[in-house]
Write a structure and sequence with these properties.
By secondary structure, the protein is α/β, with parallel strands linked by helices. It contains 16 helices and 15 strands. The chain folds into 2 domains: about 10-185 and about 395-405, Phosphoglycerate kinase, N-terminal domain (Rossmann fold); about 195-350, Rossmann fold, CATH 3.40.50.1260. Helix 9 crosses helix 11. It is elongated and about 70 Å long. It starts with 16 loop residues before the first strand and ends with a helix.
Length: about 400
Amino acid sequence: MEYDFDTMDDFDFEGKTVLLRVDINSPVDPLSGELLDDTRMVLHSNTISELSNRGAKVVILAHQSRPGKSDFTTLKQHALSLSNIIGKDVQYVDSIFSSNALNVISNMVNGEIVLLENVRFFSEEMPKLSKEEQANSILVQKLYPLADYFVNDAFATAHRSQTSIIGFSQVLPSLAGRVMELELNSLFGILDNAQEPRVYVLGGIKADDSINVMANALRTNSADYILTTGLVANIFLVAKGVELQEYNLNFIKERGYVDYIDIAKELLDEFEDKIILPVDLAILENDSRVEYPVDEIPNLPIYDIGSKTIEIYKEKILLAKTLFANGPAGVFEKEGFNLGTEDLLNAIAQSNGFSIIGGGHLAAAASSMDLDDDVTHISSGGGASINLIAGEELPAVRALIDSAKTNNH
């Protein structure tokens, strides 16, 4: 795929107003409402600081959670956290395109930073709209006349076709921020040099993402082996006819993944030699780890892959030339059930091949194990990275590429 896009090196920002889309979506304490982690804010702080230091008036667009969720809240605390991280005041504006917000933007001075309200408070952000509808939305039409450039640094949402991600690229010169640039260069670089055997390690609780990636990777012949863990493995074991008992079947149902059992059956029919399933599993029994062969699982929760499976998987990982891993192997936060996740991560770190870890929990686990320097690339975006690796075109990337074709520097 052609992936020429503009970056912050291609423009002069002195005195220019920049709309900057970041992903600072953060976990929130359900009791106090306080932010529990500032990792993503630290990640984007380089882009924000550089734009400010280069004389831009920086108008930040961001989201927190989604409607209906308990952590769907304002960005007031995010502004305070960003101010502390950057060492410069980040002004919070409690609206997105009200007359007050537009007035604040119009009166900004060079280097100033403003954070607008949660863009998902705006009703046209989340629905699936056409590119034309996004460009003509109130959000875009109100803000773009005040801006010179749109900078997209939100790699973690690059797979979403949402108004604040796509809409501005049609009406403003658009470029990648530093996080987006690093992610795309790293991932495209690894893809361009993908050597066989190519091994995917797919697990975690978001089984739909992993199974969609698996299907794409197998059908485009870009995977030699898929090692299944977590809920993904359980779905495939059920699809194969293994009796995982009522408790674990109900868990698949509760997560809304019953339909994926049929998808798993189809994939097994077509690619059984490439899809590797666990031979044993670790069960939570009397608050301890107890391992059973897959055909002897009691009616108790599955919390990890078993030791025999770990050894089989490590062998495949150590022979791989290209590795992609997404999602932990089990409930790694619980003592005794971190074995699968940590052993597989250590094997990935020891591998001589190119290795990519998708974002989310697996990336956090790798960082907590100090493996950042032993993995080729740890992505900041799980869904975005696995979609890109699977050959899906990311809407945000397409928007940047299209904009680069028409930009006049």
